[in-house]
């Protein structure tokens, strides 16, 4: 059983790469480095997909065709869409939709042409295991990994796990107007990012189990400015490393 671990930004996988057992090797394919080895007792391929749906789809396809992965987990950042979410919360996807897919009037808005569906489900067993690992890490380790000063700044008193829909698109959502539009169009979506729905579609077409976790760097109803680079370095990197370590440690060999 081989697990593919994917992220869009280097900081989200750097610590996992450092933990790979001796004997790991790198294969360079399509301008990406695929790190092949063992991590916490599991055969893994770790790769930086880069940002955007095309990059994510290309990387996912290579993982399936070249490395014969049996499962895929994507980790990274997202922006909150639903009211009541906070920076430092984690969204575990149960479905994905492409918020910038619009082939109307030939097909209904958001529907993927010829697949007859707009939403793609994650794999329940992987999703539940990832959610459990997240809950445990937030309860047991988060406070020791993320500085109290930063937690106070972000009001990260009790970060929570949410399971629900994530919307993906090739557009960085940063304005209140865009957030309001997405909330109205996709009321079930909890968060927005730029890769997950592409991974979901490829995995659906190839029958590969997958799950996605997203750490929220900001809440859509919060006017405070977030230093993205600082959040990535001092919060999200710890989340990805700690949660996936828990996930792998609990995962049957």
Automatic annotation (TrEMBL):
Pathway listed: Amino-acid biosynthesis; L-methionine biosynthesis via salvage pathway; S-methyl-5-thio-alpha-D-ribose 1-phosphate from S-methyl-5'-thioadenosine (hydrolase route): step 1/2
GO molecular-function terms, A-Z: adenosylhomocysteine nucleosidase activity; methylthioadenosine nucleosidase activity
Domain Nucleoside phosphorylase: 2-248
BP GO annotations: L-methionine salvage from methylthioadenosine; L-methionine salvage from S-adenosylmethionine; nucleoside catabolic process
EC numbers: 3.2.2.9
Name under which the protein is recorded: adenosylhomocysteine nucleosidase
Superkingdom assignment: Bacteria
Taxonomic lineage of the native organism: Bacteria, Pseudomonadati, Pseudomonadota, Betaproteobacteria, Burkholderiales
